[in-house]
Design a protein that fits this description.
The protein is 43% helix and 16% strand. With 251 residues, it is of the alpha/beta class. The protein binds 2-phosphoglycolic acid.
């Protein structure tokens, strides 16, 4: 089956009002003709209202990088899924390795956030990925599939009809070191096969993005792999021309 590809920019903690305005205007102009690919940009929380107004009426969806699992309450500094949904947010990244590592998010927390995002009518982008040490120990698929199972066990496989998966090897994030297309394809196929063990049709429909130093020079080869359905792009998504070029590779 043909899955429509998705390219999502993860801006992380970068930007300013001026940057958001300039970069989104350029991205909108440079990707206007790319009708066969879905596009999304995930700015910081504080830039969501500005991004929402700039993206209104365009083909580019809005995403958030994080969310709390509760709908409201005494959680100083946090933002809930219903709050994000008010700003035309379509996608919410959950379980990014930076959140797992730097903010100690457990598999359980990630599953709770996944549920909260769907309960508010948005789509989680569930990030999975192994460390360099785990890859060298030969346990990549065990690690990635255990992260996946932590969510499937809580929400069921059918929930993945309204979600996106992103395979992001930690050693490839922000390092300029990309997984080879073969390395990535191998893990993507394992993820899809594992999902298929629970629900074959959902597995066929679910988009699995690759993330980790995607750039204009390597995107074509990565996106040509049968189980790679687009990319979650960090550093390169901060440059409109690079993001547009990567999006072109997916179209
Ligand atoms: P990168 O980040 O493209 O800068 O490696 C990807 C990500 O963390 O989502």
């Amino acid at each position: 089956m043909m899955r429509r590809k998705l390219v999502a920019g993860n801006w992380k903690m970068h930007g300013s009002r001026h940057f958001v305005e300039e970069t989104l205007r350029a991205i909108v102009a440079e990707t206007e003709m790319l009708e066969s690919v879905d596009l999304a940009v995930c700015p910081t929380l504080v830039h969501l209202p500005l991004a929402e107004s700039l993206l209104k009426g365009t083909r580019i969806s809005l995403g958030a990088q994080n969310v709390h699992d509760q709908a409201e309450g005494a959680y100083t500094g946090e933002v809930s899924a219903p709050m994000l949904a008010e700003y035309a947010v379509t996608f919410v990244i959950v379980g990014h390795s930076e959140r797992r590592q730097l903010f100690s998010e457990s598999d359980k927390t990630v599953a709770d956030k996944f549920m909260a995002v769907q309960a508010a009518g948005m789509k989680p982008v569930l990030c999975l990925g192994e460390s360099l040490q785990q890859r060298e120990q030969g346990v990549t698929s065990e690690v990635v599939l255990a992260q996946l199972d932590a969510v499937i066990d809580q929400v069921g496989a059918s929930a993945f009809d309204h979600a996106v998966v992103a395979y992001e090897p930690i050693w490839a994030i922000g390092t300029g070191r990309t997984a080879t297309p073969e390395q990535a394809q191998e893990v993507h196929a394992a993820i899809r096969q594992h999902l298929a063990g629970r629900d074959r049709e959902v597995a066929e429909r679910c988009r699995i993005l690759y993330g980790g130093s995607v750039n204009p020079a390597n995107a074509d080869e990565l996106f040509a792999q049968p189980d790679i359905d687009g990319g979650l792009v960090g550093g390169a998504s901060l440059k409109a021309a690079d993001f547009a070029s990567i999006s072109q590779s997916a179209s």
